[in-house]
Amino acid sequence: MKDTNKIKIIGKNGQKIEITEAEQEQRKKIKKVNDEFKKINAEKSKMINEKEIWKYFFEKPKKNYNKYMCEMLEFPEYLMYNNESVDSYRGKWSEFFQNDNNIYLEIGCGSGNFTVKNAQKFKDRNYIALELRFKRLVLAAKKSKKRNLNNILFIRKRAETILDFIGKNEITGVYVNFPDPWEGEERKRVVSEDLFSRLDIILKTGGKLFFKTDHEQYYEDVLELVNSIDNYKVIYRTRDLHNSEKAEENIRTEFEEMFLSKHNMNIKYIEIEKVK
Question: Which of 164, 180, 194, 240 is catalytic?
Fold first, then answer.
């Protein structure tokens, strides 16, 4: 039998409302959870202020911070966010990884599923992945630590800054998976003439750019762009990656998994080689 007894309470805006006792209990539970979250967030913000981590991301201190900022401190072997430290390894990433293995770069790695799976599969390669969001960086670091990987690093940097921290001919491969197509603002796209001008410097001859998208026009535009650049060529392309000869070796991203479960649309894929 449903609880129909009504009680009067004062709402957030001072208005009088009637709710059941069950609803009141539910409100109390929600308030308790929210209060605990606020307390935890306040403690995290205090820690961030005490350690002055905010200086790496903001010009002046704030009252509240993203709680994952502080958690990044727990993974120094997997996360790097201090620009000065990151830039100091330009041309010397083999020293960081303590080997001369090929280095692969992912631009916009999300919470790291793709890069982590690659690092697990190819232990003789090193991986650097770029991401801006604190939560995604922490989740990626947790996955790496859980698997005890020593060939992976996540950096909080934008793609347009890669020349600041990647040296000449230092990268063997670059992954760009499902970037924003920026419809109507195509000049903001990651895969652009500007990106190729940077790849001219950091990518080895014979190195590759791997591109995935669910966007037909982006796929077509990238093919057209590569055809207009002398020192790059398309060595593989498909409009249906999951039904191609590359399907078995394909490592899926978080977005790819989600997209395939909700939509019946083909994934487009291009491999581009730097020929000189």
Answer: 180
